[in-house]
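Milestone 3.1: sequence recovery, worked example.
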């Protein structure tokens, strides 16, 4: 298996359809950004409730916290062998412990992909998102904010930011069973929901978030890290 190098994978993709033996989903908002060997993936259900009165996890009700934890997202490195990709999730919003492998069939113009599950039965249809500003540059980097590390990916005028929850692996492993068994406290839910995957847009040196696992960040401006600006200068 070799590291992903093919240019046909690079850029921002939007999922239009997921089909499984029991599901047809064309409403979940799903984006996948591939920059070099690195990826970020964001998945927000259409029925996510209103968070307009929330400005942090501390403002969220138990119902809202549970809704946040129905989201998905991850970031890491993509490996490819022939037509099969494996997404190695270094940061994972809702870990399953299962491998993530897909067989990729590109359209003739390389602007759409049919992804077929290798170890689970599913088909996903992806369409390439065109870059409005025509900028072909791309880059990735890690930044540090206090004790938190964030993965940044950028292609053209779009970027994604992935931040792991500030928990040790051991503590995180202890919390997920509490959630699945229905015995997690509100504070447990807040610890699990404290994980960010965001997609944003850039105009010049100004940037703002379009979609995020933390809804109150949407529409908010932010400062891009120097490492991303330097990479793309």
């Amino acid at each position: 298996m070799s590291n992903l190098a093919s240019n046909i994978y690079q850029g921002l993709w939007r999922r239009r359809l997921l089909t499984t033996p029991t599901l047809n989903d064309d409403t979940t908002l799903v984006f996948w950004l591939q920059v070099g060997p690195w990826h970020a993936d964001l998945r927000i259900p259409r029925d996510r409730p209103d968070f307009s009165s929330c400005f942090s996890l501390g403002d969220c009700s138990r119902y809202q916290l549970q809704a946040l934890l129905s989201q998905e997202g991850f970031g890491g490195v993509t490996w490819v062998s022939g037509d099969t990709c494996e997404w190695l999730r270094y940061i994972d919003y809702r870990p399953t412990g299962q491998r993530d492998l897909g067989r990729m069939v590109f359209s003739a113009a390389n602007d759409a992909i049919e992804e077929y599950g290798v170890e689970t039965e599913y088909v996903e249809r992806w369409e390439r998102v065109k870059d409005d500003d025509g900028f072909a540059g791309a880059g990735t980097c890690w930044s540090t904010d206090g004790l938190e590390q964030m993965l940044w990916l950028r292609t053209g005028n779009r970027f994604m930011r992935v931040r792991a929850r500030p928990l040790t692996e051991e503590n995180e492993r202890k919390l997920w069973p509490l959630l699945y068994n229905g015995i997690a406290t509100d504070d447990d839910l807040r610890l699990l929901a404290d994980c960010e995957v965001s997609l944003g847009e850039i105009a010049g040196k100004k940037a703002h978030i379009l979609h995020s696992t933390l809804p109150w960040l949407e529409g908010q401006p932010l400062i891009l890290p120097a490492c991303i600006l330097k990479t793309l200068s």
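The chain is about 15% helix and 45% strand. The radius of gyration is 18 Å.
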